[in-house]
Design brief:
The complex is a heterodimer of chains A (about 475) and B (about 500). By secondary structure, chain A is α+β, with helices and mostly antiparallel strands. Chain A is built from 22 helices and 14 strands. Chain A has three domains: about 150 residues, no CATH class; about 150 residues, no CATH class; about 130 residues, no CATH class. In chain A, α4 packs across α6 and α18 crosses α19. With about 500 residues, chain B is an alpha+beta fold. Helices cover about 55% and strands about 10% of the residues of chain B. In chain B, the strands form four sheets. Chain B has a four-stranded mixed beta sheet with strand order 6-7-8-9, with helices on both faces. In chain B, β7, α13 and β8 form a beta-alpha-beta unit. The chains are: A alpha+beta (about 475), B alpha+beta (about 500). Chains A and B meet through α1, α5, β2, α8 and α9 of A and α1, α5, β1, β2 and α9 of B.
Amino acid sequence: MASTNELEEFIKWSYPIDIVEVDDEGFLNEVSLEMECLLHECTIISKESLVDYLNKITKNRRVSLIHLFRILTGIAKTNFEIFFTHWIVEKTDNAKIIIVDSNRGKNDFALRLSISGKEVTMTVKTFADISSNKEIRENLIDFFNERNLIKKLSIIKNNSELGKDFLKYITRYDSRGSDAHKRGKMAEEKTRAKLEDFGLERNVDFNTTDWDTKKALIVRLDEEKKKNPSEEAQIELKATELTNMQINREADLVLTKTYPSLFIQSSFYGSDVASIADGTVNELDEERKLIKIANTVINNNKIAFIGLIDGPGWAYSISFQRLNRALNSVDSHFGLRTITTKLRKKIHEKNLTCPIDFEVGLLINNKKTKEIELINTVSSFYGISTEILKQELVKWKGRGKFDIEGDYIKLKEESEDIVKKIFVLDLAYLHANEEDSGKIIVPEKKPIKIEKLQELINSYNLQNDVKLDEILKSLEEEREIIKII
Amino acid sequence: MTGKEDVQKSMEEFYNFIYPKNVRDFESSEEYNTLIEDMTVALELMSEKTNGFSDISIEKIIEIINSENIGKVILLFRILTAVSKMNMETYFVSDLCGSGIFIPKIKIKKGEPVEREIKYGAETMSMPKYPKLIELAKNETTLLIEMINFFEKYNLMKKLLNLEGKNIEDVVELSKTLLKYSEKGAGAEKSGEEAEAIIKNKLELWGLVENIDYNKNDEKLTGILERKIEFLKQSGKISDEVKKEKIEKINEEKKSRQFDLVFPASNSNKEPKVIAQIVFYTSNTGSEGKKKTNQNINTSNYIKKILPEHSKEITNLLVLDGPGWIQMAGDFQKNEYLSENFVQIRTIDTKLKRILNECGFVYPIDIEIAILELKLKNKTTSKEKVLEIIVNKDNITANKDEIISQNPQFFDGKDDEDVIELSKDRHEIGKKFLILEKLQDITSSKKSQKFSVLIPSKTNLEISDTDIFINKDEIGLQDDEIETILKELEEEGTIIIQTV
């Protein structure tokens, strides 16, 4: 059971809006134009005129026209493909669904619609293609007219303005049918973009596409074998156990690619999706199980399993029990608003750093300093051991993350703005005292006084460089902090 | 391990007998008609009060809305702005929390957090559902204004102004599509319930009694397993200690899967033998289909964990069906478990019945088929003969005593020579099932003359009309009667007739 504080914190910092953009102007234009052409060409709206019109236009235009018809009659693309297939099978004599050998992908078989001995896929494109056949065209119009197509088109024919408006509204609904999975992916992507802001790189520091959890764990176990050759046999045994497990999971984000230490699984829900959310929790449980097995042979710096669990759905509408289960299924969690704070803290705990940590150190040292001083500053600011920092600094220097001037390391000019922002946020998150009368809230902390924050900045002698008001405003806009009004 | 050919066979059966329609037709539901009526009333009201949608402003809308019309007007606003009830419960509440009007709290009971709640003014309430939000807006202008502002984020005013000078009837017709999108989603999960109702109707036709032969409400897997363990204890198959140990293991499980179908029901106090969950997909559910079916596999593993030696005594099935599966052929074959453990709505009367028979169940329909079989051959329907004919069937595993104890209404107080009667109103259904049973027994050997029949039998082969009519003496019905019944079965979707 998650604690009351944790749950309150979760709701307080949940991302308040959906992250899927639904307006697709290009698609709306395509169907709007098609509607204009249709209404212009067909003087009378009837089954015959529509069947005839479909015959006159090109295959690509037929695709657009089918989209127009399904939008006007309220049938999603997938549903159209499913239900029109079943319709054809039922209404025509020589049509049936058949199983064929698959020549693509991992599956042995694929399904096809067989019409008069011709095998076709069941997609809008194919249906547009086979609409060169009159019987299919007639069926297509009958199918849509069962959902009042002709009546709707007749209304629009007499009132094109109303038609355009409604087409716009309905298209919005139509494009929204994106699945929950997409939201999880988008949340993941937002996290990746943030990690890039911190100076990490795609495909080097973290994966860009889902990674088979078992394979990722075995990469880490191989590293453990190198470190502890005496335990090789035992580690090998666990690797075999993992490989033989019936569970198959894919990790959304793994840090790092060469030394997997932090596994992130993403789940963002815009609204309630009860049974789906339940499935997510089971998947989290399964992934945790795999990680636990690997961790039994990892002595130091065990792998952490972290949930990117966020969205107004989780905060407000998914059942409390499910939310609780999800939060309990991971070692810890963060949201889109707490990547810089909570996730970064986890990264540090796993003995990993980001270039931005050193850049903050450089900012504190007048943007330019020697290696040893930089390491000491970063170590005291973030509480990371100097041993780790030494190794990490070599890595980041080698990858050109800072300007070098002889023995000196310099902060790159283009990084300054973001570094200042993160410096202020880290000051508040890691170093400021909590006070009841404070106005600034950062994750996991009670309010902080703005004056105290300014004092801290002054203590680093950065008051001229770091404009607190501006930075707080920007952090608030980016939802990184909450300002009490 | 299932081979490629077996998968193909399963796929053929699955896709031949797939349920091609939605089990829940929203557009012909009463709910849909009521919503259309409410939307129309709201449109007419708004038109009347705003001088044909020319005088539109937030103030004007606040003035129009009252406790009588608020539900309908907000429905209209939701439809025009593509905001579902669930969206209101999530995003509107999220907005109110963000602006400090609602303060989210965690309810604590015995020191543990148990639920989310909202503090609004002096009131603390559980997370407000849609009706509660409407109720609050009805009484509190502040909240009503916030609600209209919420819709304004989706350009409500502009959308209302665009209706100026438009014919209301036309607007209603076009809005129907919007309404369908807006309200349909909420009922999508009811597909499973509708499928369950269809299946339970079929079971009743076999003479099964709800809450005895099969469950009325969903049953928890933990409860089902406890019942099984109790049975194992009573029959001396496990000791008291083992029972205790297993029950403790079950109690460790915090959550438990619910089963839609359980044979027999917990109410019967008998051993649970067949359990099933229903997965009906109207549309392609993407990765979600996989999740649901994975849950079933996990369930099977869990049963094995609790009852390693007796897990096979519980048959765990999936009622897997729905038009959506034609876009998920990959998911179907990727999962070996699926292809081995599914039944469908259209194969309830054949495949599921056979599975239940093989698990030791004998139902009234089985007795009726046997009586009819004897009658059609002009033989006496004595208790002895009826029982003899049943125990000799391939699919029946119960012995005579078990058949009698499961069907006392036919056999109680009867001697071996006493005649068992078939009630008149059961003749037709009996004939149908007799044919279904015989069709499953026929071995396909001859070429079809006019047609062939597909039935999800053990062999899953096509049976030719020639084969059927050669065996008509076995069936005991006339050609035309057989043809009529075959046609009926085809219309129901239980068999498929392919004309040559």
